[in-house]
Specification:
This protein is an alpha+beta fold. The chain has two domains: about 45 residues, N-terminal domain of TfIIb (Single Sheet), CATH 2.20.25; about 90 residues, GMP Synthetase, Chain A, domain 3. The strands form two sheets. Strands 1-2-3 form a three-stranded antiparallel beta sheet, with no helix packed on it. The chain is built from three helices and six strands, in the order E-E-E-H-E-E-H-H-E. Helix 1 crosses helix 2.
């Protein structure tokens, strides 16, 4: 890896029925498999991925708007689904990014959203690996 700007670190133990914790302790969550019958409260890898992806994408979207001299207010909600993978009888994830943008037309919103999708590090990391659908609404 070249030109590292920063590195974040988290550790998980126990898989989907364990815990995850960042090295600084800000993230410290129990993990509970939503498909299980546990009555315990906790997060899951898909929920954590959704939080990270939505934050990263929304930041990229606002940068694209700033570069285009557009004053917007945006909200991005990522829906991350665990899917059955027929190719290997395993599992995979799929993402729907629901993007609401105030301050521009529907056409401009879609253009900014597509530019953000090309720029966002999470989108780059997942490109060609998982299905990502953009649902863009100018509000």
């Amino acid at each position: 890896m070249s030109n590292v700007l920063f590195t974040s670190k988290a550790t998980a133990k126990g898989g989907r029925d364990g815990f995850a914790k960042s090295d600084d302790g800000i993230i410290d969550v129990n993990l509970v498999n939503p498909a299980g019958n546990s009555k315990e409260k906790g997060s899951n890898p898909e929920q954590l991925f959704a939080a990270g992806y939505s934050a990263c994408y929304d930041g990229a979207l606002n940068l694209m708007a700033s570069n285009a001299k557009k004053d917007i207010d945006s909200t991005t909600t990522a829906e991350v689904s665990l899917l059955k993978d027929e190719a290997d009888n395993g599992f995979k994830i799929g993402v729907v990014l629901n993007v609401e943008i105030k301050g521009v037309s529907q056409e401009e919103a879609e253009e900014l959203a597509n530019k953000a999708h090309s720029f966002c590090p999470y989108s780059k990391a997942t490109r060609g690996n998982i299905d990502v659908e953009l649902k863009v609404t100018a509000v």
